[in-house]
Design brief:
This protein has one domain. Helix 1 crosses helix 2, helix 2 crosses helix 5 and helix 3 packs across helix 6. The protein is 63% helix and 0% strand. The C terminus is likely disordered. The chain contains 11 helices and no strands. The chain binds zinc ion (ZN) (2 copies). The site of one zinc ion has 5 residues, from helix 4.
């Protein structure tokens, strides 16, 4: 075999191996939790979710192979632009006044704050068709965190990293915040009946985020935070009426498998449906619905 082809194949194998290692710890944790919580029901539940899980894994493989290098380049570009245009409000040195655990805590909260508003923006007309992919999983599991359209990955990276970099957080705090919020994301997508009791008023629980994915008009436009549910409470979008046993997903038909998911935001019909939904809401005069974007009616 040609040496260049062999080295390319080895490179691909190494990327996939690293991705497998990275996912093996959350996989072990959430499989163990599923067995503990569901008991024997774990097998029919896994069978039910297997089709959606395959799509999530397919999207993830595509992400690590083709999307992640551009995400890394985008982060480097944001850091470079922040430095050359002198956009940083604070410098990493300013954060030395706090212990590193404190800096990481503030970075997680700041990441969640910008993530909250970025997520609300993703529920408006232009960004909804690419964010709808994440919402299309009807059998939500921890693997749903891996279902994001490349457009959605870029918007998330752009907004979240820009905010943290402009606030001048040191590199270790930026990456710790991303790591913590990413892994917390697995927890809130997991199929676990946990509300966290009183802690649920401060931290997002799996039940709270399940309501965000509910295909139920009453649930649209709520629960946008990743870690701190307190943000939804402050901004008036907190809604956890009890255990979430309604159907999940969206009304849009995205076609089959990974290809259907990837091509959806390229279809003009996705945007006209999104705009129509917004228009209908305006006629209904629902201010909250208009602010929340088309997901508010996507289950109709
Ligand atoms: Zn959403
Ligand atoms: Zn989600």
């Amino acid at each position: 075999m040609d040496e260049a082809v062999l080295s390319a194949l080895l490179h691909v194998a190494r990327i996939l191996w690293d991705a497998l290692i990275a996912i093996s710890i959350p996989a072990a944790v959430f499989v163990a939790l599923a067995i503990i919580v569901k008991g024997r029901d774990v097998f029919p539940a896994a069978r039910r979710a297997s089709k959606e899980m395959r799509i999530n894994i397919g999207m993830h493989i595509l992400d690590v192979m083709l999307v992640s290098p551009f995400v890394v380049a985008l982060i480097a570009g944001i850091a470079h632009a922040a430095d050359s245009a002198n956009l940083r409000i604070l410098r990493p040195g300013h954060w030395e006044l706090l212990p590193s655990a404190g800096v990481i805590f503030v970075a997680v909260f700041a990441g969640d704050l910008v993530g909250y508003w970025r997520h609300r923006l993703e529920h408006t007309q232009f960004l909804w068709p690419s964010h709808a992919i994440h919402h299309s999983d009807t059998e939500m599991s921890w693997l749903t965190l891996l279902r994001f359209h490349p457009f959605n990955r870029f918007s998330t990276t752009f907004f979240d990293f820009s905010f943290l970099i402009i606030l001048g957080f040191p590199e270790y705090a930026v990456f710790a915040a991303v790591f913590i919020r990413h892994n917390y994301g697995y927890l809130i997508h997991a199929d676990l009946p946990w509300t966290f009791g009183k802690f649920g008023y401060v931290f997002v629980s799996p039940v709270m985020h399940r309501w965000h994915h509910a295909r139920d008009p009453a649930a649209y436009g709520s629960n946008f935070a990743t870690v701190f549910s307190i943000l939804d409470r402050v901004f008036g979008t907190f809604r956890v009426p009890g255990p979430c046993q309604v159907p999940l997903g969206v009304g849009e038909n995205m076609g089959k498998g990974v290809v259907g998911q990837l091509s959806y935001p390229f279809r003009l019909a996705a945007y006209s449906a999104s705009f129509q939904a917004q228009h209908d809401l305006m006629r209904q005069g629902s201010v909250r619905a208009v602010a929340s974007g088309p997901a508010y009616v996507s289950g109709n």
